Amino acid sequence: MFALGQKRSAGMGNGLLFVSLSALVAVLLSLLFAPLVGVLGIGNTVKENWKALLLSGVGLFLTYLGFNLLYSRYGASQYALYAVISIITTTIIVGMFWLKEPVNVYHKVAIAMAIIAVVLFSIGQSKA
Asked: What residue spans define the domains of the chain?
């Protein structure tokens, strides 16, 4: 649904407006369903986690912006490339280097396979 909506926004004059309005829908739905998964303590959540909220908000904005640019300029078929690159960067930069999460041989093989997928996708796009 997200990919289809982003692709249909390609003809709009202001992609950021579309991103903003779709994010607003997501916020409203999240607030509507939040009480079903736990206590709705908005004040305490903001007070105790404002730095993480700010960081996550900027990250979500960059994700939305990236998807909007991707779909409006290149199409949904490029999603595979974007998704794999996101997995690689999140795993290596955030997981391994920033959060110092443990990595075993299976993780390393998966990262290598993701890099191979990016290379193969790029070769495939150049021959299409």
From this structure: 1-73, 76-128
